[in-house]
Design goal:
The protein starts with 14 loop residues before the first helix and ends with a helix. β1 (28-34) and β2 form a beta hairpin. It has a single domain (15-73), classed as Ribbon (Pemi-like Protein 1, Chain: D). It has helices at 15-21, 62-73, and strands spanning 28-34, 37-43. It has a two-stranded antiparallel sheet with strand order 1-2. With 76 residues, the chain is α+β, with helices and mostly antiparallel strands. The longest helix has 12 residues, at 62-73.
């Protein structure tokens, strides 16, 4: 695959590359320059992690979290 570079240094990622990276319009990517080429990595915003770890049950209250921290603070 290939794409042209504009006078401003811009290029379009081919659809197959966008699909492989899982990037969508507005996403950001990082370029890592290596000795033998360049690696393109998608940057994943923290918001995309929402719901990644399923939880069955009600959310913990602030008091529950503070109690758990206090109980764990005494453990080695």
């Amino acid at each position: 695959m290939e794409s042209a570079v504009t006078s401003k240094g811009q290029t379009t990622l081919p659809k197959a590359v966008r699909t492989a990276l899982g990037v969508k319009p507005g996403d950001r990517i990082r370029y890592v320059v290596l000795e033998d080429g360049v690696k393109i990595l998608p940057l994943r915003p923290v918001a995309r992690l929402f719901g990644a770890f399923g939880h069955d049950g009600p959310p913990a209250s602030l008091e529950d979290m503070e109690r758990a921290v206090a109980e764990g603070a005494g453990e080695e």
